[in-house]
Predict the structure of 4-hydroxybenzoate 3-monooxygenase.
Amino acid sequence: MRTTIGIIGGGPAGLLLARLLHRAGIDCVVLESRTRAYAEHRQRAGMLEQGTVDALRECGAADRLEVDGLVHNGIELRFDRERHHIDFPVLTGGRTVTIYAQTEIVKDLIALQLADGPQLLFEAEAVAIERPESDTPVVRFVHQGREQSLTCDWVVGCDGFHGIARDTFPAALSRTYEHDYPYSWLGVLADVPPSCEELIYARGEGGFALHSMRSPSVSRLYLQVPNETFPDDWPDERIWDELSARFAIDADWHLERGPITAKSVTPMRSYVHEPMRHGRLLLAGDAAHIVPPTGAKGLNLAVSDVRLAARALIELHRTGSAQLLDRYSELCLDRVWQATRFSYDMTRMLHADPDGDAFEHRLQLARLRRITASRPAAAELAANYTGLPLPL
Ligand code: FAD
Ligand code: DHB
């Protein structure tokens, strides 16, 4: 097979890139190792920055998002049994965020792609990328039990944290930076209307809890748990009791309970791979970096990488200039490190450190109080949470 841009991975990054290139008249093929059903039902992110919504809009993938997306004007911080509203439009000059599930973005992009291209192959697992330094890199992949090859002008690795693209970089070129956190998240989906209008980030006595939502009738909740926790360690009643305790405030508020329909545990890690380009291979999204989910940045970073990759590839296609492609890694990594810093700070500020002491806990509360007492401190949180501008 032959194409201009070979895209490995049909997650949000790969699918959005395919859409942006297709609309610019650039031929591409997406290889996705999983089935369509699996890709469409993997529960993950929900909070979209304005720039992410704009990107989906620009490429005609926002029809359902316009109807079902929930626009939020802020978040609530809870600590010391008090609630504090952080007002994004007031603090940022009008910016908002939107709640719309990653599963729905993936469904919308897959539907568009299957309707009018470009080609998207499910159960097509890339096994190797050959000659990324040459003008014609080749992706070897297995589809329907048969090994095949896809010859490309450029390859973009959008194959997530466990993909193969990153490993194609020569060891002498790769630099990696990692940090593991001493806790995980237990995430649940529940058939119950959200007990709040905006997301609640709580530093409770027992640790962190997050109340998010998927629709007016479905809640998404997360609970800090120890590493190595199994979802079955947490029967439903125990989850609701712990969530209620962590969100508790000295006011008339209570958490509605309902049937839990999904439960999973996610470890927390920061990871950055530099550079994000080698020859004619680019990395985008989780393939190059991951952040702990507390700042809601992973999907949004994947989208900003892809917007830059699309711009750079389109510029090359239209003008023959590789100037942007030459700056791709540097431009992405600047944003990646800002998001890594923000996600780290949010995580450290809101979780109970199992190895921490009373001093650290008091510092966390002092940081939270500073945000709720000082407009510049709140504005700094709001600017990062709603998304820093793209560099171009
Ligand atoms: P992925 O979604 O991982 O997609 C990669 C794709 O590549 C997959 O479909 C995979 O099957 C495929 N693939 C892998 N290897 C191969 C191969 N060899 N050949 C072919 N295909 C392959 N982010 C936010 O911005 N906001 C949030 O609110 C948020 N909340 C989160 C909550 C949780 C609990 C978790 C776990 C994550 C959250 N994230 C959030 C992060 C976000 O989900 C990820 O950053 C996002 O999925 C990255 O998209 P991606 O396309 O880069 O990678
Ligand atoms: C969601 C997940 C997050 O990690 C976050 O910070 C905000 C929202 C969500 O799944 O809705």
In short: The mean pLDDT is 97. Residues 32 and 122 are 5 Å apart (CA to CA). The first strand starts at residue 5 and ends at 8. The pocket of 3,4-dihydroxybenzoic acid (ligand 2) is lined by residues 45-47, 199, 210, 212, 220, 293-294, 296 (CB under 6 Å).
